[in-house]
Amino acid sequence: MQQVRAKKSLGQHFLIDLDVAQRIAATIDGYKHLPVLEVGPGMGVLTQFLLQNGHDLNVVELDGESVDYLKVNFPALDGRIIERDFLKLDLQEACGTGEMVVIGNYPYNISSQILFHVLDYKDQVTCCSGMFQREVAQRIAAGPGSKTYGIVSVLLQAWYDIEYLFTVDENVFDPPPKVKSGVIRLVRNSVQHLDCDERLFKSVVKTSFGQRRKTLRNSLRGMIPPESLPKLDEHYADLFKRRPEQLSVQEFIELTNIIKNLQNKE
């Protein structure tokens, strides 16, 4: 059967280096007791190693041409190909309610959306591993003080321990992308609930980094009752004079609780 044509609209860059595919598959070797969902298998270069390694594998693929290719070349996937858009997929409906692993050579144009969809199922997805555009991978794994530390870093690191594993060059893809890639692994931490209003936490993080060059006092002033602004200088000056990239996840939780208390006293 002919090879699948890469479609720009789907952000497809097919991995053709078997050694790289094998290394990515090995990032979840410690989870052979859990079912695995591969996102966007394409022509199955990663799929073949996941099957060889004995994983209980399902794949989700939106591209009909890729689905046809997989059906012909991977009979082991019979009944295990989910022909859906991962971003619209209910993981509990498709894969059950138990713990699971997500892996893939993710389309770069929707990689952040993929991770936020995983985050919606954080109590189910024990591990998420795979390849992203290098700058995105570095941003996800960045810590406080880094210029790349931002919204996605904080929101994911609140629930996952994240490790940048290795960099992948452009020439191992067909067609080659214009950027390097990075492989990372997210492992669910022990946090069950953030010690704050989680909806407000998201809003505080997004608002803070929306004006990351400003101090928190200035970027968050719209979330604080005007009459409470003097209290910031009196009681919380050390925190609010900082910029968002200087705060750890725990400090963002503390910041959220302060704002919540000030709002309640309005």
Structure description:
- The chain has 266 residues and is of the alpha/beta class.
- It folds into 2 domains: 8-188, Vaccinia Virus protein VP39 (Rossmann fold), CATH 3.40.50; 198-264, Helicase, Ruva Protein, domain 3.
- The chain has helices at 18-26, 47-52, 64-73, 91-95, 111-120, 134-141, 151-157, 198-210, 216-219, 229-235, 237-240, 249-264; strands at 14-15, 35-39, 56-60, 81-82, 100-105, 125-133, 160-168, 173-174, 181-188.
- The protein has a 7-stranded mixed beta sheet, sandwiched between helices. Strands 1-8 form a two-stranded antiparallel sheet.
- Helix 8 packs across helix 12.
- The protein is elongated and about 70 Å long.
- The mean pLDDT is 92.
Second rung of CATH, namely the architecture of the largest domain: 3-Layer(aba) Sandwich
**Structural class assignment:** alpha/beta
Number of domains: 2
What gap, in angstroms, lies between the N and C termini?
A: 68 Å
The percentage helix is 25-40%
Q: Strand-and-helix sequence, N→C?
A: EHEHEHEHEHEHHEEEHHHHH
Q: Which fold does the CATH topology of the largest domain refer to?
A: Rossmann fold
Uncertain residue segments:
none
Largest sheet: 7 strands, mixed
What is the percentage of strand-forming residues?
15-25%
The fourth-level CATH homologous superfamily of the largest domain is Vaccinia Virus protein VP39
Radius of gyration: 21 Å
Please tell me what the overall shape is: elongated
- The strand line-up of the biggest sheet is 4-3-2-5-6-9-7
CATH class identity of the largest domain: Alpha Beta
Q: Say how many strands there are.
A: 9
- Total number of helices: 12
What integer is the average pLDDT?
A: 92
